[in-house]
Amino acid sequence: MNHLELAKLGKNDWWRYVLGILIIGVMWQVVGGIPVIALAIHLMADNDPNTNFIEATARFEGISPLVSYIAISCMFIGMLGGIYLVVKFLHCRQFVTLITASKRINWRRYFQGLGVYFALMLIMSIGSYLFNPTDFKFNLNLSAFLMFLPFVLVLTPLQASVEELLFRGYLLQGVGVLIKNKLIVAIASGILFMALHLKNPEVKINFILMPLTYFTMGFIFALITLRDNGLELAMGAHSANNLFLFVFINYDKSAIESPSMFVTVAPEPLVALVGFIILTAIFYVVVYKVFGERKDDSKNWQLAQEGKEPLVTVKA
Q1: Which helix (H) or strand (E) holds 54?
Q2: Domain span holding position 93
């Protein structure tokens, strides 16, 4: 049973997806956004010229990066709650079917994706530094960094994985109910992922190439998910990408500020796009050459669909 077919284990009326997207949006922007809204109201009421909330990009300036990071992360916790409620009670299927067609989540595959992608980002960043060291500025504030680190190690993989659950899980499978061509499904995933990130500050650098970079990320992660028949590789790679940025080398004026070790200038759009394509191509080759194809047993989900075996609940 492939990743897209898992949607067949639940109810897929069109109105369920319309209502589901609305519920997820409310849980994400309203319920999960309560800390962001409260913090923004507090800053506006305070009238401090050194602090600012940029409504268009939901970015805070002039306050502790840790405070704004936790507030924004709560939005993804709300999104996760919305996805769970929608899949479990609206589509009436197991939440884990967003991730895998197997009996249990393959955490080894997740850490393979995270480790390989993180290593490739490190190698490419070292190469960028050697080529143009003036673009990098040492930024380490040890006390702020150590206070930030425990939160980023927990909340960043959560945030990245929740995005994957939405785009390469719920929405990808939802589009797959209507469209059987996997290439078109992957393209749709890239478009939706790009649309979510159009408000990011770096998009202002180039309104064509920067959105195209987000589209490419969503498209390639969708292809990886379909090839691997599971979400773990994409979740791991996405987590590695965000962890590396927040901990080691963040961009100046990025969407989410962090006390990273280094700060670099915003990426040149064409370089960022080409670099990402090269990185993910190498990632794809390394994962399948070194670790091989995924080896999971999805028999129980197939039998469950046929009514011959109960669904297996995944235990942490």
Answers
A1: strand 52-54
A2: 4-305
Answer whether residue 315 is part of any domain.
no
User: What count of Cα atoms within 13 Å lies in the side-chain half-sphere of residue 6?
Assistant: 31
- The mean of the pLDDT values for the chain is 89
- Other CB atoms closer than 10 Å to residue 200's CB: what's the count? 17
pLDDT at 153: 96
C-alpha dihedral, 57 to 189 to 230 to 119, nearest 10°: -50
d(CA 147, CA 100): 35
Q: Strand 262-264 to strand 249-251: parallel, antiparallel, or no bridges (unpaired)?
A: parallel
Asked if the structure places residue 50 within a domain, the reply is: yes
Model pLDDT, residue 312: 41
Q: Are strands 59-61 and 52-54 parallel, antiparallel or unpaired?
A: antiparallel
> In a 3-state reduction of DSSP, which class is residue 53?
strand
Report the distance separating Cα 95 and Cα 170, nearest Å. Answer: 10
pLDDT at 224: 95
Gap between the Cα atoms of 308 and 223, Å rounded: 31
CB-CB contact of 263 with 139 (8 Å): yes
Residue 312 lies in a domain: no
Amino acid symbol at 120: L
| Structure tokens that stand for 59 in this block | 């970015």
Beta bridge partners of 65: none
pLDDT of amino acid 234: 97
Contact in structure between 165 and 231 (CB atoms under 8 Å): yes
Q: Are 98 and 173 in contact (CB under 8 A)?
A: yes
- Domain presence at residue 159: yes
The domain total for the chain is 1
pLDDT digits (tens, 9 = 90+) for 18-35: 999 999 999 999 999 999
- What are the residues whose beta carbons fall under 8 Å from the beta carbon of 14, sequence distance 6 or more? none
At 107-151, the pLDDT tens digits run 999 999 999 999 999 999 999 999 889 889 999 999 999 999 999
Looking at residue 108, its amino acid is R
DSSP 265: P
